[in-house]
Automatic annotation (TrEMBL):
Matches recorded under CDD domains: M3B_PepF
Residue ranges annotated for the Peptidase M3A/M3B catalytic domain, each copy included: 171-558
Keywords: Hydrolase, Metal-binding, Metalloprotease, Protease, Zinc
Cofactor: Zn(2+)
SUPFAM superfamilies referenced in this protein's UniProt entry, alphabetically: Metalloproteases ('zincins'), catalytic domain (SSF55486)
Organism of this sequence: Deinococcus enclensis
Manner of cofactor binding, per the entry note: Binds 1 zinc ion.
Gene3D superfamilies for this protein: 1.10.1370.30
Keyword Cytoplasm in record: no
Annotated family: Belongs to the peptidase M3 family.
Official protein name in the record: Oligoendopeptidase F
Pfam families registered for this protein in UniProt: Peptidase_M3
């Protein structure tokens, strides 16, 4: 009997010939050898795009497969061999093709390629041969984080639990159960903390060397150019940190003080605080809207049927074609994400569900990413024009969390739906201090930290920032060594400087929802239209297409906090 997991495994298979550079070399060499005039460029770009899509497919399949099998050395090695043997020569060829394109006499890019042509030019200027091999090293180092955390177990009440399973216990209304789960989780974290410390120091060294190779003063400057951040500056980010400190931290503190009072708690301890799912003010059990991944799929299918027929059809396609893996199990990376197969224009969602309302929110979030892939791929033929700049890429996901709020009557009763909606709004407020802290830590780490950085420096800076952005959590009497390791988080290892985008996009998603309260169909239509623009439009234009402004300044944050306070009332 074929199972959903069998279908997933079938989607992730890669033919042996696609694991070697010799398979791709002839096509790259043919592109490089072609005599190229301005008139030839569009067709030549189409051929190059198709080749990039093929590589993207293989990379995605291998990467997902290794995340599903963190305990299988053979699977891990196959991925690393591909990264080491195929991606470096491909990267060098991409640089050669870029340089060829940039020197075509008389070529002027069409409007839908103009933005990416500029990005190609900037990327070519940043390219350094030495960084090709360092990218392989960086990938190997960050993959060590996945293996360490993917195989992490938490022992609680004589059971070995995965990280998502133990986090579920933190939602219990029983404070003693929450504390036991939190302590067991932290014991597990501290058992691997030394290994992760070593990985991080290696990554810092690698990333700093990349910046030096590219003649950049620090890794922040290098990464800023690599991420094509042209619409805002590090100073804007630092102003955002200050605005969150002054506007969102006091509001979160007041929320938590009120919650503690209602629950009869003297203070909020670490086991009393989950920014994604704050405790129920009436001490009720957490919402448990489903038990299995299959049930979660069904409730999402019904929600999309009520929201939009095309979204429902896209989700059904994913269900029927092995493009979802939702269950939590040992040996599976504990994070959640959406990947993408460009040749077929199909997304893939990986999660670790355990039956909570938070799982419902995260599924809608990841499916928002999936719809972004679908719609941008439908509208944009070339791979470079799909998806979007990273400052917009979380809007499709976060807005989908809000756009589905009015289509969950089949999941929750009236009172439960109010609880779910309240949690969603509270989570936005509580998330902003975390996002600012994560971003501020990385600005310090890559632009201000000492040259001879130590683990003690990392821990001390995180403690300083945590006291600033989460002053409402009472750590008295606890070992703050645990608190100091809060920086050991997925994005810090895998996607440096990718976090403030969540805050930007959450603010925009709230704006989209505010518009949807007045004009549901119009808001949804604008949402889809913005997704179809893909990566061919600047960030401010994408925001405008979605019906919001590209802003994350103090005044804007204050206005949205006021709106959220009103909605919570």
């Amino acid at each position: 009997m074929t199972t959903p997991l069998d279908a997933v495994e079938a989607r992730l298979q890669v033919a042996p010939e696609h694991l070697t550079w010799d398979t791709y070399r002839p096509d790259f060499e043919a592109l490089l050898a072609q005599d190229l005039t301005a008139a030839d460029v569009p067709a030549w770009l189409d051929r190059w795009s198709a080749l990039q899509a093929q590589l993207g497919d293989v990379s995605a399949r291998l990467s997902i497969h290794k995340d599903l099998h963190t305990d299988d050395d053979t699977v891990q090695q196959r991925y690393q061999d591909y990264v080491a043997q195929v991606l470096p020569p491909a990267t060098r060829m991409e640089q050669a093709l870029t340089e060829k394109l940039l020197t075509v006499p008389g070529y002027a890019p069409a409007p839908d390629f103009a933005l990416n042509y500029r990005r190609f030019r900037d990327a070519a200027a940043l390219f350094r041969e030495a960084n090709v091999d360092l990218s392989v090293t960086e990938n190997e180092q960050s993959s060590r984080h996945s293996v360490i955390t993917g195989n992490q177990k938490v022992t609680l009440d004589g059971q070995d639990l995965t990280i998502p399973q133990v986090k579920q216990r933190l939602d219990s209304p029983d404070r003693a159960q929450r504390e036991a789960a939190w302590r067991a989780w932290q014991d597990s974290n501290m058992a691997v903390a030394g290994e992760l410390d070593a990985v991080m120091l290696d990554l810092i060294g690698t990333r700093r060397q990349m910046a030096k190779n590219a003649d950049e003063p620090d890794y922040r400057s290098y990464r800023w150019k690599q991420l094509d951040r042209v619409d805002y500056t590090p100073a804007d980010c630092e102003a955002f940190h200050a605005a969150v400190r002054d506007e969102a931290v006091p509001l979160t503190t007041a929320m938590m003080r009120d919650l503690a009072g209602k629950l009869g708690l003297d203070s909020i301890r670490p086991w009393d605080y989950n920014r994604n799912n704050l405790l129920d003010a009436e001490g009720r059990e957490s919402l448990k809207p489903f038990t299995t991944g299959a049930q979660l799929e069904e409730l999402a299918q019904t929600a999309f049927a009520g929201l939009d027929a095309d979204l429902a059809a896209r989700f059904r396609h994913m269900r029927e074609h092995g493009l979802l893996d939702l269950e939590s199990r040992p040996g599976k990376m504990s994070h959640a994400y959406c990947a993408y197969f460009p040749t077929s224009n199909e997304p893939f969602v990986l999660m670790n569900v355990v039956g909570t309302a938070e799982d419902v929110r995260v599924l809608f979030h990841e499916l928002g990413h999936a719809f972004h892939g679908f719609y941008s791929g439908d509208a944009q033929a070339q791979v470079w024009n799909r998806w979007s700049p990273i400052e917009f890429v979380e809007i499709p996901s976060m807005a989908m969390e809000f756009l589905t709020l009015d289509h969950l009557n089949h999941v929750f009763g009236p009172d439960e739906l109010i609880r779910y909606r309240t949690k969603q709004l509270e989570s936005v407020i509580a998330f902003l201090p975390w996002a600012a802290q994560m971003d501020a830590f990385q600005h310090w780490l890559y632009a201000q930290a000492p040259e001879q950085i130590t683990v003690a420096d990392l821990d001390a800076k995180w403690l300083e920032l945590d006291r600033t952005f989460h002053p409402f959590i009472d750590w008295s009497g606890l070992d703050e060594t645990v608190r100091a390791k809060g920086w050991q988080y997925y994005h810090i290892f895998h996607i440096p400087f990718y976090y403030i985008e969540y805050a930007m996009c959450y603010l925009a998603a709230v704006g989209i929802w505010r518009e949807a309260r007045q004009d549901p169909q119009g808001a949804l239509d604008r949402y889809k239209a913005a997704l179809r623009l893909g990566n061919a439009s600047p960030v401010p234009d994408l925001y405008r297409a979605a019906g919001v402004e590209f802003r994350f300044d103090r005044e804007h944050i204050r206005g949205l906090m006021t709106f959220l306070r009103e909605q919570l009332k």
